[in-house]
Design a protein that fits this description.
This protein has one domain (12-158): Peptide Deformylase (Alpha-Beta Complex), CATH 3.90.45. It is an alpha+beta fold. The protein has helices at residues 26-41, 133-145, 150-153, and strands spanning 46-48, 58-64, 74-87, 91-98, 101-111, 113-119, 125-131, 156-158. The strands form two sheets. Strands 1-2-3-6-7 form a five-stranded antiparallel β-sheet. Strands 4-5-8 form a three-stranded antiparallel β-sheet. It is built from three helices and eight strands. The protein is globular and about 45 Å long. Bound molecules: nickel (II) ion (NI). Nickel (II) ion (NI) binds next to helix 2.
């Protein structure tokens, strides 16, 4: 596995609509392994392929299964061609940052629950139900595949003060 460089704005790849993945070949498996390693090294909870300079519809997310429990084990999600299929009407505000936009936080309104459909790394159909922060992470990562970053959606953006809590990077 190889660490990949995380690209930042204004790199135009981050503004491109990423390509649908059609080949589940060894290059894709290598990219996935590298993205998992890069995500853990960052460290972060979500990473989209455009953030490592690959304009492909692929995300990796690693987040505690139950974030209300202190020692909940983390669950790794690799989703190829992810799409939000169903979204709750209810939304909530939350503070986000992004590995591709260092030193900026923003308040973003997101749907509180989503159903994400996509494919596994081998091309099998999968469906994931997510709520709360996990739902937020999926929405943030899928936005990356459409050239959208959190500052586009934020109602307020600021440079975090040193005393501000460190956010999970996405
Ligand atoms: Ni991001």
């Amino acid at each position: 596995m190889t660490l990949r460089e995380i690209i930042t704005l204004p790199n135009p790849i981050l503004r491109r609509k990423a390509r649908t993945v059609t080949l589940f070949d060894s290059d894709l498996q290598t990219l996935i392994e590298d993205m998992i390693e890069t995500l853990r090294d960052a460290p972060g909870v979500g990473l989209a392929a455009p953030q490592v300079g690959k304009s492909d519809r692929l995300i990796v997310v690693e987040y505690p299964e139950d974030d209300e429990l202190e020692d909940s084990p983390k669950k790794l999600y690799v989703v190829v061609n992810p799409e939000v299929k169903e979204a709750s009407e209810e939304t909530e505000m939350g503070i986000e940052g992004c590995l591709s936009i260092p030193n900026l936080h923003g308040e973003v309104e997101r749907t509180i629950a989503v159903i994400v459909k996509g494919q596994t790394r081998r091309g099998q159909a999968i469906k994931i139900k997510a709520q709360g922060w996990l739902a937020r992470i999926f929405q943030h990562e899928i936005d990356h595949l459409n050239g959208i970053v959190f500052t586009d959606r934020a109602t307020k953006v600021w440079k975090p003060a040193p005393e501000e809590p460190v956010l999970d990077n996405v």
